[in-house]
Every structure is written in C-alpha cells, then in structure tokens.
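call fold(seq) -> tokens
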Amino acid sequence: MLPLIPTTLVGSYPQPDWLIDRDRLLDSLPPRVRAQELWRVPEPYLAQAQDDATALAIRDLERVGLDILTDGEIRRESYSNRFATALAGLDIDNPAMVEGRTGKVNAVPRVVGPVRRTRPVEVDDLRFLRANTDRTIKITLPGPFTMSQQAENEAYDDPADLALDLAAAVNEEVRDLFAAGADVVQLDEPWLQARPEQARAYALAAIDRAVTGVEGTTALHTCFGYAHIVRDRPAGYSFLAELNDCAVDQIAVESAQPHLDLSLLRDLGSKTIILGVLDLSDETPETVDEVARRIEAALAFVPAERLQVAPDCGMKYLPRDAARAKLRALVEGARRVRG
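ret:
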C-alpha cells in the first residue's frame, strides 16, 4: 500500500563516475543514436558493470525512503535512445544531423522503412529491478510523439502515421513490461512542450494507441528539458490541458525550476499528478521546509489523494551526493505534509 502523497523519481538517477564518462556526458546533448564512447567499461564487462551500478542505485533509492522506485535508467545513454535505436525501420549507422529543441544540432536516426518492434528492449531491465526490491516499481519508455520528433522521417508521407507506428511498438513493450512485473509504466513526452502545434495535430492519438488495451497504471512525463541543458523556462506549459483527455492515468510535470503557475493543475482534474518539487538547475539540496511548502502550495489545486511528488525531471546530470540529498529532502518534506 502506498502512503498518501507518495514519492518517486521521474526516471533517471546519476550513474557512477566509474561507469560513465561524466565530462563527456555533461559536454554533449542527450544522444539520439548510440554513444558507446560515454561508457568507461569495455564491452565484454559493460553489462555486468551496468547491473552492479543499477543494484547500487536501487539501494540508494531504498535508503532515502522513496515509495516508488525506478532502475535509475543506469543502462541508458539517454532516456530515449535505448528503446528507439532497437526498432526496425531506423538507420542509426548513417544518422541525419538536425536541429533539436534547444537550437543545437544533434545526430538522429533516419526513418528508412516501416517502424516495428522486433524484440523486447527493457523487459530484462524491469525483471532486474523487480528482483532487487519489494517496493512499488516504475519503468520509463520514450513516448511515440517524442520519438517521432527525434528522427529524420524519410519513409512516411504523413508524420502522424510514423507516430502511430512508433506507438504500436511502444504498446507491445508496455504490455510485456506489465507482464514482467511493472507496477507503473511511464511514457516520456518532453517534445509535447517543444512542438505544441504538431502535438495538437496527432500526439494524443499516438499516446492513446501506445496504451490501448493495457492493464496497469500508466504515466506520462512532459517537461521543458534537462535543467543542465535548458536553463530558461516559462511559467506555463504550451501543451498541458490537452493531456486531461489522453488515456494515461498519471501526468508528471515540473514546477520547481520554472515556478509553475500551479493553478494550471486544475486542467488535469481526471489525472493523478506527479509534481516536480526539486529544482535540478541547482545542486544545492532543498530544505525539508522548502519541499513541504511546494507540496502544500499544490494542495490548493490538487487533492492529496491525486498527488505524487518527484524531482522536476531526470537526475542523471547531478552529482550523486547532491541527488541523494535532494531525494532525502523530498521524502522528509512529503512525510511532513502527510503528517
């Protein structure tokens, strides 16, 4: 049984320095194709090292007292490329160079044929997480709309058709993840905010297709980008109220760094809200009082029964000590408000 106002991650937790080249990680955009050069451990030993680092992350998250755990996305070079680059129909060996949401150019897969999922991608990751904790667990997948925006489409006349084929691939993975023991599966859709016009045209249909027929709790995270990369944020979302009509159960939004106008949460009256209350642009840990105040402010617009709390976004760019300290404040702040 989860407590009132449970605590969770959005997805990632910092990878240890012995596993990932953090200088390279911090100096580059999130990779859309493979980025093997980020790993410090040679290929014959990499999977074992990633398992060990994932087990350490799970212990960290248990010790700080999180209610809903992820695997920290320790095996991933970015939140999206582990799944996206495993799909048929994408050419990752001959990428295209395109402008991303920050205005910088990044290498992305080229869509050269019908997109299909040919095998489970994150199911073994989920099984490892399930075997290493008895707490409620969540695993994340890139959403179909975001993946459609992170690729160069050379095969589909209609970008909506590409998004729907990506959604079908996600749907197959979501079903297998629940069958393997997931309690929650979250779709990451940051590009809803970056491309609101395209999102209004075909994102909701793709999101709904991704969770069609799924029996289990589904979540969707939308944000303004990693704090390490995107510093300036508006106080409101360009695509948010529309998500009240999508088929997922929970919506994760950031509020701490952008000082979000929390009255916007009224527009999501049918959803559980996963509210970001940790500002990841500042390595200094929040105090318990700060976290409690942010949670209490949200309770003016969301009942406690529909509220979860988390960091604003993934924590992978933070030092591990800072991430742990911030999560301790999150847990204690929620406990104080809960009491």
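The first helix runs from residue 22 to 26.
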